[in-house]
């Protein structure tokens, strides 16, 4: 019984100390008047009234290794099949094909984004959310959940893009 009361007393003391320390630190910063510096980049969306996921931008190529990509008129079915399997393994934890989940759905993405932008977002998501205005807005729209870099090759990213071409709106 004595051990239990000592343990409870210790936990309460630890709680009060941890809470009190943070408040003092905040007050100290205010009293000293130091400017706080952060390394976070501004991710405030440009207010146009249209959510980033609904914006159409067929000129932005994004930031990354893909500068030019011409898609053939017909879909490469074997490549799309490979892309579908890669999407299942690498992307479905955060993306569902036809509905918003953690990230946006890829259905209809080629009607809103350039192939280069899509490829650069797949290959280089960290740089995109720092340097690309649309990617910044999408990050904010999706509750600050950044896209994970899956370390895909350009060939794998291209296969996923080909799979996106096969997705039809319901």
What does this structure look like?
The protein is mainly α and 170 residues long. Helix content is 49%, strand content 0%. It is built from six helices and no strands. The protein has helices at 2-32, 77-90, 115-123, 125-131, 133-141, 154-166. Helix 2 (77-90) crosses helix 6, helix 3 crosses helix 6 and helix 4 (125-131) crosses helix 5. Residues 20-46 have low confidence and may be disordered.
In short:
By secondary structure, the chain is an all-alpha fold. The protein has helices spanning 2-32, 77-90, 115-123, 125-131, 133-141, 154-166.
Task: Give the topology.
Layout: H1 2-32, H2 77-90, H3 115-123, H4 125-131, H5 133-141, H6 154-166
* Distinct helical segment count: 6
The major β-sheet equals: none
The count of DSSP E runs of length 2 or more, i.e. the number of strands, is 0
Mean pLDDT: 82
The radius of gyration computed from the alpha-carbon positions, rounded to a whole number of angstroms, is 23 Å
Poorly predicted runs are 20-46
Tell me what portion of residues adopts beta-strand conformation: under 5%
Classify the helix fraction into a percent range: 40-55%
* Oligomeric state as shown: single chain
Keywords:
170 residues, elongated, 0% strand, mainly alpha, 6 helices, 49% helix
């Amino acid at each position: 019984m004595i051990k239990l009361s000592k343990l409870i007393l210790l936990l309460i003391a630890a709680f009060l100390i941890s809470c009190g320390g943070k408040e003092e630190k905040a007050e100290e910063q205010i009293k000293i008047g130091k400017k706080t510096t952060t390394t976070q980049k501004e991710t405030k969306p440009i207010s146009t009234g249209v959510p980033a996921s609904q914006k159409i931008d067929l000129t932005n190529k994004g930031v990354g290794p893909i500068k030019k990509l011409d898609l053939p008129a017909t879909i490469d079915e074997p490549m799309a099949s490979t892309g579908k399997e890669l999407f299942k393994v690498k992307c479905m934890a955060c993306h569902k094909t036809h509905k918003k989940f953690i990230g946006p759905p890829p259905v209809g993405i080629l009607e809103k984004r350039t192939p280069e932008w899509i490829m650069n977002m797949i290959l280089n998501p960290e740089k995109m959310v720092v340097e690309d205005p649309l990617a910044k807005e999408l990050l904010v729209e999706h509750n600050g959940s950044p896209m994970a870099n899956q370390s895909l090759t350009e060939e794998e990213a291209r296969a996923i893009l080909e799979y996106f071409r096969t997705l039809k709106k319901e």
